[in-house]
Write a structure and sequence with these properties.
- It comes from Pseudoruegeria aquimaris.
- It is an enzyme of class 4 (lyase).
- GO terms for molecular function: arginine decarboxylase activity; metal ion binding.
- This is Arginine decarboxylase.
- By secondary structure, this protein is α/β, with parallel strands linked by helices.
- The chain folds into four domains: 283 residues, Alanine racemase (TIM Barrel, Alpha-Beta Barrel), CATH 3.20.20.10; 134 residues, Beta Barrel (Lyase, Ornithine Decarboxylase, Chain A, domain 1); 77 residues, Methane Monooxygenase Hydroxylase, Chain G, domain 1; 48 residues.
- 40% of the residues lie in helices and 16% in strands.
- Strands 4, 13, 14, 15, 16, 17, 20, 21, 22 and 23 form a ten-stranded mixed sheet that branches.
- A hairpin with a 5-residue loop joins strand 1 and strand 2.
- Helix 3 runs parallel beside helix 10, helix 6 crosses helix 7 and helix 12 runs antiparallel to helix 13.
- It binds pyridoxal-5'-phosphate.
- Pyridoxal-5'-phosphate binds next to helix 11.
């Protein structure tokens, strides 16, 4: 199992049992026995919760909330920082009620709040009773209704901060303030010029679409002064980005944010909170390097760098230390969910075969078959070249009508047999990159029961890497290399980059598919953005979701089960009324029955098949 690099990316949450099964460990209670993940899946299957399945583990979520809050607390205590930390969870990163509810629950001891980037998210935030000191930070474009709700919510005790995204937004705020006669809690979004590396570089620097530049800031400050509202400006928001790979970028950007904080204070703003937005990265690959899917720092280091940079800069300027706010989403939720699916079937690009050329076959088939007579480790490259050349020539002959389908099938089987022999010999030699590349093309395709577009949209859209590993048989040497193909009819629906111990690989080592039981694969750390951004390509809907709590005795409790979309549900999303569809289908069935094309029992079976499909899961059952 060491080839997968699990020790590196498993974050102490995942390990392998002597039986070769992936196990989950409770990060908060080290004495709790670990629990077999395939065991959980079997148990859930028995209860009718089938794969594909998103499994959420509450302990993983609680541990991350604790880590970030206690990380800031510890840094504050260690450095003598004279302010506190009040984090907020950005709802957009995972809006599912089961997730947000638990974040509020686990965050309660830390007065952890919520960030809303839209009116619907504010409505969700306000449905939670938050601790007295917790914040609700409102970002995004806001209309009068949004602003009215934010201001009035303060009457219920919410600390709802309206972060001004533009000078124009202030006009609306002023109108609503006049209308209500109530004072708002205001923030201002400052655009930092320091550009941060990684996949989300566009969200930082001069050309980012959010926040105000120096000129716009001055306009806002002057306008607030004129309106007698400058004392309401409490929070400076300077979003660092997302998945920031290099901790020194954090330091530099925070340093720049502090300059604005100091200057705005000098302009008379009564700033009390410095909000540094998102950016705390997740080490998906476990490499601990500054790259798109890894980071060169820990949560603790991130906290320390922020606390130290702010403390130092403000001390130098003689400005009081503000309450620190961050809006980490990814780092809070990514590890808490995993996607689990079964493999449906395999396409092989090598296969043992006893096929021999026949007397009336084209001579190229005999030439192809003859390659095995000189196949040795030393001549492996030559044999690869020859076999591929003969196979391609034969395909050209088939296309022109010179050989039959049966003869071509024979040639393909001989070719697959040669590939199987070549693959078996490869470990005996030091292969060249050319041979490696050719052998990678021989990886099997494992067809899997999930939709990349619904469940792993960032893998498709931005080449996000998530750890992927078989859940079972890890005590047996894998005997196949595969790429994964999803259940959509889209050639983009495949995964061909995998995190392994020795780097990123175009294929995943797995086992031949067992005949008597399902073979499960797990994709880890999918809790951030994936559930939210997923789409209905080919009308594959939401998967089943199970939220589990790890028990002290090594068992688990199923806290919540969210059934995946039925076909009727996805039909309604695209504005079909399932009842109308049943009626239309019935009409056709009745027509065919009247014309005696169907008898009564066939009619019944056909209607039942249509209805059962409509009521069922969108995935392979
Ligand atoms: N806050 C704001 C304003 C954002 O735009 C984002 C996402 O880009 C976040 C917070 C969350 O960032 P992350 O998930 O990297 O912590």
């Amino acid at each position: 199992s060491s080839i997968y690099g699990l020790d590196r990316w498993g974050h102490g949450l995942l390990s392998v049992t002597p039986e070769g099964e992936i196990a989950l460990s409770d990060p908060l209670h080290k004495d709790t026995p670990r629990i077999s993940l395939p065991g959980i899946v079997r148990d859930l299957e028995a209860r009718g919760v089938h794969s594909p399945l998103v499994l959420r583990v509450t302990a993983f979520l609680e541990a991350e909330i604790k880590r970030i809050n206690e990380g800031f607390r510890a840094s504050i205590a260690r450095t003598g920082y004279r302010g506190s930390y009040r984090g907020v969870f950005p709802i957009k990163v995972n809006q599912q009620a089961q997730v947000v509810d638990r974040i509020v629950e686990f965050g309660r001891p830390y007065a952890y709040g919520l960030e809303a980037g839209s009116k619907p998210e504010l409505v969700i935030a306000l449905a939670h009773r938050l601790p007295e000191e917790a914040l609700i930070v409102c970002n995004g474009v806001k209309d009068a209704e949004f602003i009215r709700l934010a201001i009035l919510s303060r009457k219920l005790g919410f600390n709802t901060v309206i972060v001004l995204e533009s000078a124009k937004e202030l006009d609306t705020v002023i109108e609503v303030v006049r209308e209500l006669g109530e004072e708002p809690l205001l923030g201002v979004r400052v655009k930092l010029t320091h550009r941060i590396g990684g996949n989300w570089a566009e969200s930082s620097g001069d050309r980012s679409s959010f926040g105000m530049n120096t000129d716009q800031l001055m306009q806002v400050v002057d306008r607030l002064k004129d309106e007698g509202l400058l004392h309401c400006l409490k929070l400076q928001h300077s979003h660092l980005g997302s998945q920031v790979p290099d901790v020194n970028d954090v330091r530099r950007a925070v340093g720049e944010a502090c300059r604005y904080f100091i200057e705005l204070t000098r302009e008379g703003a009564a700033l009390t909170h410095l909000d540094l937005g998102g950016g705390l990265g997740v080490d998906y690959t476990g490499e601990k390097i500054a790259s798109e899917n890894s980071v060169n720092y820990t949560v603790e280091e991130y906290c320390t760098n922020i606390v130290e940079t702010v403390g130092y800069a403000l001390d130098e300027a003689g400005v009081a230390h503000p309450t620190l706010v961050t809006e980490s989403g990814r780092a809070v939720v990514a590890t808490s969910s995993m996607l689990i699916f079964n493999v449906l079937e395999a396409t092989h690009y090598d296969a043992p075969s006893a096929e021999e050329p026949q007397p009336d076959d084209h001579h190229l088939i005999a030439d192809l078959a003859a390659v095995k007579t000189y196949l040795t480790p030393e001549r492996l490259q030559e044999c690869l070249n020859d076999s591929t050349f003969y196979r391609d020539e034969l395909r050209a002959l088939f296309r022109r009508g010179y050989i039959t389908l049966r003869q071509m099938a024979r040639a393909e089987r001989i070719y697959l047999e040669l590939m199987a022999r070549i693959k078996a010999l490869a470990p005996q030699i030091e292969t060249t990159p050319e041979i490696d590349a050719q052998l990678e093309k021989l990886a099997d395709i494992y067809h899997c029961n999930f939709s990349l577009f619904q469940s792993l949209p960032d893998v498709w859209a931005i080449d996000q890497l998530h750890p992927i590993i078989p859940l079972q048989d890890l005590n047996v040497e894998p005997d196949r290399r595969v790429v994964l193909s999803d259940i959509t009819c889209d050639s983009d629906g495949k995964i061909d980059r995998f995190i392994l111990a020795d780097g990123i690989s175009p294929s995943l080592p797995v086992h031949s598919l067992p005949e008597d039981r399902p073979y499960y694969l797990g994709v880890f750390f999918v809790g951030a953005y994936q559930e939210t951004l997923g789409d209905l390509h080919n009308l594959f809907g939401d998967t089943n979701v199970a939220t589990i709590e790890l028990r002290a005795d090594g068992g688990f409790d199923l806290l919540h089960e969210q059934e995946g979309d039925t076909i009727a549900e996805v039909m309604s999303y695209v504005e079909y009324d399932p009842k109308d569809c049943i009626a239309a289908f019935r009409k056709m069935v009745d027509g065919a029955t009247s014309e005696k094309k169907l008898d009564a029992s066939e009619r019944k079976a056909l209607m039942a098949a249509y209805r059962d499909s409509i009521e069922g899961y969108t995935y392979y059952e």
